[in-house]
Each structure stands twice: as C-alpha cells, then as structure tokens.
UniProtKB/TrEMBL annotation:
SUPFAM superfamilies referenced in this protein's UniProt entry, alphabetically: Dimeric alpha+beta barrel (SSF54909)
Coiled coil regions in record: none
Classification via InterPro entries: ABM_dom, Dimeric_a/b-barrel
Keywords for the protein's UniProt record, in alphabetical order: Monooxygenase, Oxidoreductase
GO molecular function, one term: monooxygenase activity
Lineage: Bacteria, Bacillati, Actinomycetota, Actinomycetes, Kitasatosporales
Protein name (record): Antibiotic biosynthesis monooxygenase
Residue ranges annotated for the ABM domain, each copy included: 17-107
Entry annotated with the keyword Oxidoreductase: yes
Length: 118
C-alpha cells in the first residue's frame, strides 16, 4: 500500500471531473482487486493526459473497493478509455469484481476541519 502525503487543489465551477467507481467484490478478492487498481494507476493512468489523481478505498467489511479519480475534464477521461492499455485494465478489474458502478461527478463544495491537527 502506498501512503504518499499529497495536497490537491480542487476548484468548483471548472471542467474538472471526478470518477467515483464503487466495485462490489467477494471478500476473499478485495485485496486482489485493490492491488490491480493500484498497479494500473501507477503504471498506466499516471501517464495518461488529463489524469490528475486517484484515491483507492477499501470497505471495512471487505465487500467493496472505491476508486475516486480526478480528471482535467470529461474529454480527457473519455479519451483515456480508448487507450488499449486502459481498456485491458478495465476488463481485468471487471473480471475480479462482482459488479462496478462508475459515476462521473463534479465537485460542488469542499470542507476541511477547523481543528488544529498538528
């Protein structure tokens, strides 16, 4: 698992989009799926024009993996889906998951804690 410390600038009212993809998976395959998504993100998506960032989340009950990925705009995301390497990855992840639900969204607002966390 990678744990980089990053800062992300999100601006509302832009063309930037976010893919929220919720995968349903057998408990015994959750790690396999998140590792496949992690590898594809590092080796493929980080090199695709328009890709900004991705965060992978695993449910505590072991039945879901959530991919939260930000893109410069919808056209960049759509173009990425035409790349052979991306298509191969999508097929691989789909083969591990029981189901998946990709949804494109735009950030409406961002809220941060007022608490001093230092």
């Amino acid at each position: 698992m990678t744990s980089p410390t990053t800062s992300l600038s999100v601006t509302t009212g832009t063309d930037q989009i976010t893919l929220v993809n919720v995968f349903t998976v057998d408990i015994e395959r959750q790690t396999e799926l998140v590792e496949a998504l992690d590898e594809a993100t590092r080796s493929i998506f980080t090199k695709v024009p328009g890709f900004i960032s991705a965060n992978l989340h695993v449910s505590l009950d072991g039945t879901r993996v959530v991919n939260y990925a930000q893109w410069a705009d919808k056209a960049s995301y759509s173009a990425a889906l035409q790349h052979p390497e991306v298509r191969k990855h999508v097929e691989h992840a789909a083969g591990i998951a029981q189901a998946y639900d990709p949804t494109l969204v735009q950030v409406w607002s961002v809220h941060n804690s007022d608490a001093d966390v230092s």
